[in-house]
Specification:
Layout lengths: L1 E8 L4 E2 L14 E2 L1 H11 L3 E9 L5 H9 L3 E9 L7 E8 L3 E8 L6 E3 L5 E3 L4 E8 L3 E8 L15 H11 L6 E6 L20 E2 L14 E6 L2 E7 L10 E6 L1
Parallel strand pairs: 1-4, 11-12
Antiparallel strand pairs: 1-16, 2-3, 4-6, 5-6, 7-10, 8-9, 10-11, 12-14, 13-14, 15-16
Helix pairs in contact: 1-2
Length: about 250
């Protein structure tokens, strides 16, 4: 059967004006959930992994998206206060047209990196983690999504001072399931993930690495890892107005 997936960091559902600077964080202020939904409708995915979702007492973006797309199954894990909009909780989600079971969430090691900004404010690295579930497409697929710490923003060299974090990530992503789909924002650029997470790939997992740029700033942060799925194609939708591009893939199972 054909399995269609999308990986997308939606940045709290914010988009920019078309004429604005795509490389400036300040451009992404406009509420754009309907825009994101309309984009996803054109792709008709079976499984969607999202990062930087928002959730509050009144609404959960993952639920809004799932219901608008007619996809009956979703999970959303929120794990820290949002840096995008006050009053929101930051999270990540898996949305599916197939039944979901065995949902779990684990936090990654967070060294609480600090960054003093020119305006005097201080950024401290957010908690991050891995969301996991089993999606039943006729055979069970273990689906994981994650958002790693933005090492570059904090001036951290992942190959030296960031190694403890990477080891923890690899340990928590490891699974013995025969069919695996891992999609997420790995916040690593310019190299295959096996260079950052070597122990993860000792378990017959394979990255679908194309080097394709997935952000307007020219980074290839959004990645896909599989086992037991035949990769057919992957393309990046780089015409969107969000601060990450959706990554659309097709697999055969």
């Amino acid at each position: 059967m054909l399995l269609k997936t999308v990986q997308w960091n939606i940045g709290g559902g914010k988009i920019r004006e078309e004429a604005s600077d795509a490389t400036s964080d300040e451009s992404y202020k406009r509420d754009g959930i309907e825009y994101i939904i309309d984009t996803l409708k054109t792709l008709s995915p079976n499984i969607i992994t999202l990062q930087e979702t928002h959730a509050s007492e009144n609404e959960v973006q993952a639920q809004i998206i799932a219901e608008a797309l007619g996809l009956p199954f979703y999970i959303n894990d929120d794990y820290d206060d949002s840096h995008v909009e006050k009053g929101q909780r930051l999270g990540q989600a898996i949305i599916s047209s197939f039944p979901i079971s065995k949902h779990s969430f684990e936090l990654f090691l967070n060294p609480k990196y600090r960054l003093e900004r020119p305006d005097g404010s201080v950024w401290i690295s957010h908690d991050k983690g891995v969301s996991r579930c089993v999606v039943d497409v006729g055979v069970p697929i273990t689906v994981e999504t994650l958002h790693m710490i933005p090492f570059r923003r904090f001036g951290v060299d992942v190959h030296t001072t960031g190694t403890d974090v990477l080891k923890d990530v690899a340990t928590k992503l490891l699974t013995d399931a025969p069919h695996v789909l891992i999609q997420g924002d790995f916040n690593t650029h310019g190299e295959p993930l096996s260079n950052f997470l070597p122990s993860l790939f000792q378990n017959n997992l394979e990255e679908i690495y194309t080097g394709a740029i997935t952000t307007p700033k020219g980074r290839d942060y959004d990645r896909i890892i599989v086992r037991g799925l035949k990769h057919i194609s992957t393309r990046v939708i780089d015409s969107v107005l969000t601060d990450h591009y959706p990554v659309y893939s097709e697999f055969e199972i």
